[in-house]
Amino acid sequence: MNQLGERQIGRYVVREATRADAAGARSVMLDTFYQEFGHGYDPRWHDDVVDMDTAYFDNPRQALLVAALDDEVVATTSVRADGPQSPPHAPWLAERYPSGTTAQIFRVYVRREHRRRGLAGELVELACRFVALTPGYESIYLHTNAAIDGAEPFWRSVAKEVHDGRTDPAHSPAVHFEIPIPVV
Fold first, then answer.
1. What does the pLDDT look like over 38-91, one tens digit per residue?
2. Closest CA relative to residue 73, chosen from 15, 129, 118, 124
3. What is the pTM assigned to this prediction?
4. DSSP string covering 119-144
5. Residue 76 and residue 106: Cα distance in Å, rounded?
């Protein structure tokens, strides 16, 4: 297995993904883009979804995490060694969270019928553990679309807000958060 192991949450298994999980994880992500976000796949922002080998499996500083029920992937989270980009985000955020030393949490998606079971929280906790065990990271950053049902309250329960982009009409309306790197 890997350095993170796996955790059992009821009937679900939460763990670092393998290449065998790629199709299931991709399905969760694409369904989220189309059904939840309503904008579909955009190669400018979603290249990791198509090329998971390069993005996650071949890069030891990045990870894809999944929750599975009976070997079916029902939720995802990822860690990438990228800070926020400007544009669309404010330049000061890109400076505060530079790529390379910033671990950005991405793709925290749970299929609707599997929500409210603690999967997102468990995946984020595992993602933070991955960051803590990976040399070179100085911060954990993420941003979310507060218009997505449940996203903002969830992130407020596990992270500290650093900027509410809804107050900045010149940039993305995302809400930006930081999570302390845990001590392991």
1. 888 887 788 999 999 999 999 999 999 999 999 999 999 999 999 999 999 999
2. 15
3. 0.94
4. HHHHHHHHHHHHHHHSTT--EEEEEE
5. 9
